[in-house]
Amino acid sequence: MDINFKKPAVQKTRIPASRIFAIRKLSENHFDPTWHAHSEYQLFLVLEGSGTKFIGNTMKSFGKGDLTFIGPNIPHLWRSEDYYFDPQSDKRSKGLVIYLNGSALEKFIEKEEFNQLKILLGKVRHGMEIHGETATETIDLMHGLLHLHGMESVIQLLKILGVLAKSNEYNLLHYGEILDEPKEVETNRINIVYNYAFTNFKKKITLDEVATLLSMTSTSFSRYFTAKTSKTFSYFIAELRISHACKLLSNSENMSVSQICYDSGFNTLSNFNKQFKTFVGVTPKEYRQKFLTL
């Protein structure tokens, strides 16, 4: 399955200069699978769909109800499950996204009354995954914002930011802080690697074949990938395989653990069990049992 990356990886502003924010409802065959970045803050809610999201150097599965808040210039993508790329499929990826003008927000946070907002925006530069009652309240406010205009919409937006600023129901997603806009040539290179890895992770992938895609030696590519993602390429492939295995263990009761092992790209069951426990903390059988008892 190949995807043509026609959109620029470093994207221009999505908010008119005359506005503080923009809110959009998305309904597509799949979310944008292109590794990209932009200057706005982004609050993104998944209404329908599932897959894998990359926020900076963190990879996690997403599903309905996933709520993520990221700061400016953090490279990211939400890649839907493979069946969303099938033109014959009636599956749709649906989302609700708010883009916030950073320059406008920065004018607020210098005032004493907005000190909590200033702290929140500092956290968001690492990316935040929001959960619990905070997510429930925020989601309700986001749906309400769709139908408001003018000053009422700004008041509703401030309510959303207020809920998030007061909460500790979140996980930070990106290790480190990104201040500068990434260069387009770099994000395009990572897109090539990510697309190839997503398409081929079920089979053996060598450093040489991936390095060739970027006209690099395997040694140069290994250093480059680690510098850009804070992880080795072999670790990244293991993440992809374990993430795929987790989805199958929780959703495909008819597949045995052995079948899932080989479908996820592992050559031996013993290695699969070892790697799975290293990444997840439990064995594949124990992980599956958790879902069977829900």
Automatic annotation (TrEMBL):
Keyword Phosphoprotein in annotation: no
Task: List, alphabetically, the SUPFAM superfamilies matched.
Answer: Homeodomain-like, RmlC-like cupins
| Matching PROSITE patterns | HTH_ARAC_FAMILY_1 (PS00041), HTH_ARAC_FAMILY_2 (PS01124)
Name the UniProt key words of this record, in alphabetical order: DNA-binding, Transcription, Transcription regulation
Task: Specify the signal sequence span.
Answer: none
Q: Tell me the PANTHER family matching this sequence.
A: ARAC-FAMILY TRANSCRIPTIONAL REGULATOR, TRANSCRIPTIONAL REGULATOR MTLR
Protein's UniProt name: AraC family transcriptional regulator
Task: Kindly list the organism's lineage.
Answer: Bacteria, Pseudomonadati, Bacteroidota, Sphingobacteriia, Sphingobacteriales
